[in-house]
Amino acid sequence: MVLTRFAWPYGGHHVYLSGSFTGWREHSMTLVEGSSTVFQAIFNLEPGYHQYKFLADGIWHHDEQLPFVTDEYGKVNNIIYVRESELVPPILLTGVSVPGMDVDNGVFQHVASLSGAIHREPITRVSDADLRVSRRQLSLLLSRYTAYDLLPESGKVFALDVKVPVEQAFHIMYEQGLAVVPLWDESRGQFSGMLTASDFISILTKLHANGSMLTSEELEMHSISAWKEEKLRTTRNSDGSEQLFRRPLIHAGPHDSLKDVALRILQNEISTVPIIHSSMQDGSCPQLLHVACLSGILNHICRHFRHSPGSVSLLQQPIYAISLGTWVSDIGRGYGRELVMLRSNAPLSSALTSLVEGQISSVPIVDDNGSLLDVYSRSDITALANGRAYAHIRLDQTSMLQALQLGYNANDVINGRRRCQMCLRSDSLHEIMERLSDPVLRRLIVVEPGSKRVEGIITLRDVFNFLLR
Region 419-446: what's the mean pLDDT? Predict the structure, then answer.
């Protein structure tokens, strides 16, 4: 049996836990000491998969930030995979999390030996031959599915006309919670590109270059098409003349395989690919069906192996033992990249520089001891569109703490909790994949148990680079 902690961090007056391990009877949860919103319950569970859900003030819920499944009757339950018990008793963290952070990933167990060192189970490393076989299995699986399988049964897809002013465009992106949106060019009758949070970073950096605050008119004067024209890459011909190079829109069709879609995202260093159906026969306008991202593709892999993760030995490897992600020195086997971190008093301009020049998607914000406080990502820049905050700040004089506070003010509590998700170095690749298949997650911060000192970052892109290498 494995001692397992369940947490409900959304508050309430009376909260109960019900699961397959309780015979679906309600079990009362208690408030964590020092907290008015976090309820917990601890059970001894047998290793394997278990389903559960919460009853808060008479209403049934599942935690959308944790893995969940839908049964044959359409009911949605959270799901947890309990590993074999460690050799020493687990010490469970009972402290209260920092706002915006989620310290529980189902079985977020903090295991320590009597000397206080982290206990690790012996690792059976995957041989090169097994690694090739595992990757081949995953590659074949992705080749069997197509982009059509990513289309939801219902939903909406956003696109912006290139004539829309930049200021209005980013306000729409902020209001709709979009980090990327396709662009429609009416004059050409086609989708011509994507507007991203990186564009907003580039615009703000350029317009703030003179050190003054912005006026609303400065962004209102720039339409999306005007900004994109300025952004065109300039190259020189052999005779010294300049030539404008327009990057074509990277997209996919509904019948392209998921492997092709994933490789298109990785090879072009983008975050999403629009799925566009165009009929050359009737000459009709192309149809935007979906905007595909890596989390949706990963969900197909996880769904296939959810009840048989042991069928691929690679998935059982702890993340610190494989060449996955970005780590501090002497802990994980990453790609040799430097792990960039910033203090909360660092200027916002430092974060934007790190995101652009380092070609990374996020920067952990840490205290003086290197313990995780929060994460600032590219998509957070759109929060500056709220109330035209961009017009009232100086990038070099706004601290990361102030920038993060703008994000908290702009989002509700649940959205805030999505910002900063953590994991342990001992978590298996399968566990990491299950969590990153959540469409609201893009990365997991690897922390040291107890201290929450940052040890590494695992992103969606890292997982796919490793699986499809």
Answer: 87
| Summary count for the chain: helices (H), strands (E) | 12, 26
Q: 253 lies in a domain? A: yes
pLDDT of residue 200: 84
Dihedral sign computed on CA atoms, order 46, 47, 51, 54: positive
How many residues are there in the chain? 469
Bridge-based pairing of strands 272-277 and 180-185 is: unpaired
What pLDDT is stored for residue 126 in this prediction?
A: 66
Same domain, 221 and 262: yes
Residues 107 and 155 in one domain: no
Domain shared by 209 and 268, yes or no: yes
Using CA atoms, how far apart are residues 17 and 199, in angstroms rounded to an integer? 44
pLDDT score, position 91: 30
CA distances 122 to 125, 314, 427, 446, 451, Å, are 9, 15, 13, 20, 24
Q: Give the pLDDT confidence of 377-418 residue by residue, as tens digits.
A: 988 888 887 777 777 778 888 899 888 877 665 444 334 444
**Are residues 347 and 396 in contact, defined by beta-carbon separation less than 8 angstroms?**
yes
Examine the domain organization and report whether 153 and 280 are in the same domain.
Answer: yes
* pLDDT tens, position by position, 83-93: 764 433 333 33
DSSP assigned state of 252: B
Question: Residue type at 465?
Answer: N
Supply the DSSP symbol for 84.
P
Among candidate residues 268, 297, 326, the one where a domain is terminated: 297
Residue-level pLDDT at 85: 47
Do residues 4 and 80 touch, judged by C-beta distance below 8 A? yes
In this structure, are 77 and 34 located in the same domain? yes
The verdict on 159 and 292 lying in the same domain is: yes
Residue pair 294/461 in contact by the 8 Å Cβ criterion: yes
Structure-block tokens of residue 389: 């905050």
Which among 467, 458, 434 is positioned nearest to 262, based on CA atoms?
A: 467
Specify the pLDDT at position 127.
Answer: 75
Q: Domain containing 105: what range?
A: 1-119
Query: Rounded to whole angstroms, what are the CA distances from 357 to 19, 197, 325, 329, 447?
Result: 47, 15, 18, 21, 25
Residue ending a domain, choose from 275, 297, 319: 297
User: What is the average pLDDT score of the chain?
Assistant: 78
What letter does residue 101 receive in the DSSP assignment? E
Please tell me the total count of domains within the chain.
2
